[in-house]
Structure of RBR-type E3 ubiquitin transferase:
Amino acid sequence: MSELEILESIFPDFIATDQSNEYNLKLEVPVQLGEPLRTVRVLPEGKDDHALTLSLTSLPPLLLDIILTAAYPDEEPPSVSIRSSWLSPPLLFRLHGLLREMWRPGDGVLYDWVEFIRGGEFLASLDLSLPSGVLEIRHRTPQDIASLFTTFDDSARTALFSQASYSCAVCLTSVKGAKCLQLACEHVFCRACLYDYWSFAITEGSVEKLGCPDPECVKIGRESKEEEIARVVSEQEVQRWRWLKEKIMFEKDPSLVHCPMVFCQHPVPKPKESQTDTGGDRLRICPACSFSFCGFCKRTWHGAVQDCPVSQAESVVLEYLAYEEGSEKRHVMELRFGKTILRKLVAKYQEEQLNKKWLAESTMACPGCSLSIEKSLGCNHMTCSRCRMHFCYRCGVKLAASEPYAHFSDTSSGCYQKLFDFVSEEAEWQPF
């Protein structure tokens, strides 16, 4: 077997021969960076500042145009010209000299050339690698070269990943990388299993399960990135996932209000710098449609000085209830505002007061997010379903997540030995 046939069998992706002339061939050899040459610093020529630091596994290939002369390999090396998108002409000239020096009379040198370039050994010979293991490359336009390096490295990683086979931890089968997805945590699953897992979670509204299915990642609650989810599920499911994320954000932050515009309904956060004294904390500006409104009455912004219509309505109701039914002043208010409207406002006000009374008597507010929680049975150690805050249901104090029951063992606490509230009820026996 000739040297060229051996080279084609070992590196079929690197070599291309000229059909018209079997002695002319082209080699496209990528540079694979092993440890520690994984950090690449791209600098402008003649300067040591504004360096761009990259973490790469490979560099764009070098193109070798080779002519096998009649005197090769006994009397002279092959004729070669080198092209590169990132090596400067002086460095290419030095590399050309290094390749010619590797030839020995009577020995083939093509395999040694490929390995010399593919393994990155020539980088140290060209003084591009520092003793610290960092690779330094200078160019006229560092930004362009850095973009070239990053793009090629991403494509090389993808190609390498697609060719390999991986064991899916869900279906326990070996699947080709082209049908798999590697998450940011580096766990690999087949796309079919990820689709079933994530699609079901989105349909059921369990956004917290939209993460890596690996038990370790599930334990710490690691969520997947949007670009990973978009590569597996449909666009409609991605939109529903975004909507669910916004809904959960709205529930966790009681200061968020929905934009009152029917076509928008986007969550609007509270201003970062609220002006409580002037009423400016009620101002909300929707980031989606730029509608300015009052966060209290949900109407167009009426200014910080003017009283809110909702607070005005409440004062009218209180004044109306202060008068006895049938009194002259109450009759005047009915004529002024309308009897039907006043009755509706009174009914709404009384209902709100009853709700507030029930919440105060029958529930405990979470100290983390103010969510009202009612306990039907069980111990007094509570975990908020919204913000996951641990607290005592009896006194409302926050509890340490690592040791929540220490509060009930503290003799100085008012809840000492009151983890459970027992109500002694002795049933009376009566004979028939």
User: Anything to note?
Assistant: The CA atoms of residues 230 and 238 lie 6 Å apart.
